[in-house]
Amino acid sequence: MILRPPETRFSPARVWAMLLRYLYILRSSWPRTLELLYWPTLQVLIWGFMSQFLRQNSSYVAQAFGVLLGAVMLWDLLFRSQLGLSISFLEEMWSRNLGNLFVAPLRAYEWVISLLAMSMIRVAIGVVPAALLAIPLYHYSIFAMGLPLIAFLILLMAMGWALGLAICGLILRHGMGAESLAWTIIFALSPISCVYYPVATLPHWLQPVAWCLPQTYVFEGMRAVLFHQTFRTDYFLSAVGLDLVYLVLGGTVFFFAFRDARHRGALMQMGE
Amino acid sequence: MSEPVILVENLVKRYPGGAVAVDGIAFTVARGVTAALLGGNGAGKTTTLGILLGLLLPSSGTVKLFGEDVLRHRYRVLPRINFSSPYADLPHRLTVRQNLSIYARLYRLKRRAERIETLARDLQIEAFLDRPAGKLSSGQKTRVALAKGLLNEPELLLLDEPTASLDPDTGDWVRSYLEAYRARTGATILLASHNMGEVERLCSEVMMMKAGIIVDRGSPSDLIGRYGRANLEEVFLDIARSPREALEPVS
After folding, report:
1. B103/A100 Cβ within 8 A
2. Is A251 helix (H, G, I), strand (E, B) or coil?
3. pLDDT value of position A178
4. Given an 8 Å threshold on Cβ–Cβ distance, is A105 in contact with B75?
């Protein structure tokens, strides 16, 4: 076995350093922290009251009151995990700091691990309070889903990361002009992710496209749990497989763009 | 003779799109020497520094630092080098102390707080250690950037315009600090600068670049004598105003 000098090995200490940096940034601006809480809470309020109204007027929602609220929270989790990763990445762009960072012995994958960790923290700050708020307001707890909820969280977060990595790669490749992708791409997927309605609602020709997205299986799986108290293992396994494919694709786009940035000199110049 | 700290051979950088920034340069810098890359805008200085730092991949050529091929073993040399430029910002919303602390962790330094305090005292940045980096004046930012560059007490320090935006007094103070740092640690320093007075004072070797090639080199006094000029600034102007075809690359 070749013993490499410590500098050439993976370093959890460097990952922690980067994570600490993003926590400092988050802590330095209370409006940004508040914003993390703001949108998920607002969504829960809007959809919670909407669900209460529909319960009295719709047999679909009446069968499982939490179906809309659960969907809102899980969709937000997917969005926040992607955005959480992209925003931490953009912080480096906004401060024109990539040159300084990669002169230090920080590896690209150590940076990515810290971005993923920060995404989890941002999701927790944003989504957990909203989920807790629904308990006293609507007597609905998403946690009542039990173990399937953990599977859904992991599957959605993985897809959020895959998208986030691909978006960061596109920003590295195309510069800050592509910044808005961080906020927009996910919404283009929303209609075919079947968040609030079953896949069967889509036109036949569009359904195979929907089944190519792991989140579609998650939302169908969530409805199966809420309506039929059944955890669909087939959906779960399909989503795991697709998540792996998208993570590999997202990672490939990111690392290819990172290497390309070293060819173009973008690490030295990139900024607002 | 000991191995040079920097060894560059046949280095070429052609950007996608065809622009040639560096066109087959070769040079060495020995241990403990302060050397300068001089040249006008677009001469290839920053590109050369970027390649030495591993931020930029060359099209061809060899770059060795401490005998290690930078392209293959970048992570072996990065802990031994550092870089400072007033043009590479630190995150504005973090305080100076937080910024330095993060970099100290990235270099996996022991006794980080102690190292930051020492540097803060040496570089006279104590008074604003707890101020956000975005609220500093240009001169303060330059000193903080230098503190970042010295955190790991590098054996090779690369500097891009180290005294840009500084008033003459502070500029002089920074130059004295760099001289003392090199004398104390035996470090090698390579700087890119437009300040000829600074280069005359700090550097024992100068490489004059134009349009991606090294067109002349030597000590400041050699160059001044060879061109029959009064100072390095006049040499610089001579070279900058000569047509590219009249200049031959030197090796």
Report:
1. yes
2. helix
3. 82
4. yes
